[in-house]
């Protein structure tokens, strides 16, 4: 009995750590896009520096997962909860990396002015942040509906990405001087679109965790 | 004794499956970039269709990993071998997705002519394929040297990416009519660069597997 109780406490700790990591990368996305919209190098460097903590937490969570798997011989459903945690942590880490890439774009653009005020990009960032929060909620609450809702939200992000893509393409066509910055801004949106994909991945893992069946949401 | 023997046989099977998956995505990269260089839609559709098999193998490998972890209570070093397999499989799946994205670019470009013959892009693809092969060899042979060599190769890929980036930027600046295709080609190279990152990730996992210490290679 004691061992099982210890096991479930450890599982809860694991989930708390995952949520903590989720909040960290959510904050990183927000700050990275804020730094870009304001071309604020200080905020950008804060995001870059913060990624070490995200990576440390990832290593910690992975170690906990392996320890739990090896020492506790969990049953099928718990096994999926832990396996899912190992997958989610990879998606979160990649999201953190994308936030760093966005922040680095801010640093590269120091000394320039933005081609136009960023409106849609922060909106896209908000959408991906919401998706990430939903994805983690679906994991903690084991909520199939929330997990499934991510596919639709991912479509909305993809549509916005396409729209921004066309606008930037137009800016490049209009003046060669715009090309360099427009490409960088395009890459930023591409990363936000990838972040939404990662959130959708997490949703797929949660569906697998609850149902035992793997299902692709975004194809 | 029988259980341990069964365990090691299962481990070997797991590694064989991982290598098989590696060969599949290596082939997918090769075919995707070939389809692009020749604007061959048939090859491109072959890559897109082949991704299902990659995903099926991923699910199979992950299930084997979880089964091995839960049923066999492996010791620390075996634990790392299995945990590493679970991570590598994610990188391989992502590489497969990138190959599909490249193939889809070929499909989008049907009816167009290439702005210029692709020379550096296939070269970049070859470099990333070699890195992937090295990464998987380092896993199977538990070879620290090969794993560590990936960082240097990743730098070479990054350098080539920067060069192609500048060339495409120039093409866009020279003629607005080039913008659309140049962006798509840029995205392709960005994906190849990401594939190299995934190979480097695998190298990091192998270093962890051998030494028990996590170490970032490409920062």
TrEMBL record, chains A, B:
Can you list the GO cellular component terms from the UniProt entry?
cytoplasm
> From which domain of life does this come?
Bacteria
Q: Which SUPFAM superfamilies match?
A: PhoU-like
Segments crossing the lipid bilayer: none
Identify the InterPro entries for this entry: PhoU, PhoU-like_sf, PhoU_dom
Location relative to the cell:
Cytoplasm
Q: Which residues form the PhoU domain?
A: 18-105, 123-206
Assigned keywords, A-Z = Cytoplasm, Phosphate transport, Transport
Main localization of the protein described in the UniProt heading: cytoplasm
- GO aspect biological process, one term: intracellular phosphate ion homeostasis
What is the annotated role of this protein in its UniProt record?
Plays a role in the regulation of phosphate uptake.
Q: Which family does it belong to?
A: Belongs to the PhoU family.
How is the subunit organization of this protein annotated in UniProt? Homodimer.
Q: What is this protein called?
A: Phosphate-specific transport system accessory protein PhoU
